[in-house]
Amino acid sequence: RLWADLEDKAPKAALKVRAQLQRRAFVEAPQSGIARRWAKMGALKQQSAEDQLQRLERLLQVHDRNLVKEASAFQPAADAHRCRHELVLGIGERKRRRYRGALVHLEKARTLCLKVDEARSRRASLWEQRVRAIRRDGPGTRKLAAWYESRWPDHSYVDDLWVLHARALEKRNQKEAAQ
What we know:
Shape: elongated
Mean pLDDT: 81
Order of helices and strands: HHHHHHHHHHH
Number of helices: 11
Number of strands: 0
Structural class: mainly alpha
Radius of gyration: 21 Å
Largest sheet: none
Low-confidence stretches: none
């Protein structure tokens, strides 16, 4: 009743309130029923690129199964947005245990983020190393760890990357080389 009164008396204000509600629902509670209904009706395309990325990051936090499908439909234009987009896609694929796709997206994220946001590039490198270790890619983990150490020698992730390299070698039954 209140909504109908608002639409009758002040239609412009009602549209503004509806847009604010949609944004909050999409970004803050993307897995809610109302956000899903509005997404099916195509209201997601009306949101800004920043809002869409925040929504995808929130879906990633709550382990939503539709994340990769929704993220694949979104194509950001700016480098900073593409960096975050590829990182979300890579982590989403990793959580779905689709490691080949995760590696593709995480490698793109690492290179794109290197130009825009080094912290995200470091994060993408760590996720990429985790996926490589799961796939038992010994040479790939060594190469990535060496690259990372040459770029940021004093960073705390360097040890983590070398440990993941050792685990990848252990999984390949190369225990002497792992030590």
